[in-house]
Amino acid sequence: MKQMINALLKCNIEIEGLLRVIESRDSKYARDVLSEKIEVFNTLYATMSRSYPVSVEDVPIETEETLIQSTEETPQSSADEPEACQYAKDNDTDIAAAPLQVSARQELDATDNKTPIEENQTQTKASLTPESPQTEPNVSVAERDDSLRMDELLSRREAQDLRRAFTLNDKFRYRRELFDSNDALFADTLNTLSAMHSLDEALDYLYKDMGWDPGDDNVKDFVATITNHFNAIK
Questions:
Q1: Domain ranges of the chain
Q2: Cα(223)–Cα(56) distance, rounded to whole angstroms?
Q3: Which of 22, 57, 71, 164 is 20 to 30 Å from 149 at the Cα level?
């Protein structure tokens, strides 16, 4: 369970970073990655809920019987108390009110006896007291660094995404001419080529593993596109 909670926390941090990137600059790629992270988070949470379910019996539920019992167990009101206690309470109220009246008179007398010198000193101290400057909320250095690292990471991932090297017309053309209109095969091939570290490795995969003809015009155009891509990310 601890590993699953750590995975949820890590996924939550990545989601927060993506939201900050989208807030600073709206990026379709960031939104796509955010959707993937949210789906991963929901899957992890659903798995943890199934693995560690909460029993309904563990949650206390107040029924009508328990409410009646709690009402019956409440102490009696002050109306049932002996007269002596009630008399003492009334006297306590009168006694407590007297000091308040005396203190109020003392405050009025002290205000009347205040000399002009004391008033001037009070005004002088108030005028000399500097006003505290209003500080604007500052974003911590760690938050800025996290946002920059996430932004840089997204930029690198966008540059390394081979699918962005092809236009929409190119995708339709190569899917039809080189992959027999098989969307899954076309996507798998692009993902495989994106994971490769060099152009030579990619060409070896196309010519040997895929069995493509180097003299075919469609193959030449496809190879030219991935060549430009690998040269750009060096």
A1: 2-53, 161-232
A2: 61
A3: 164
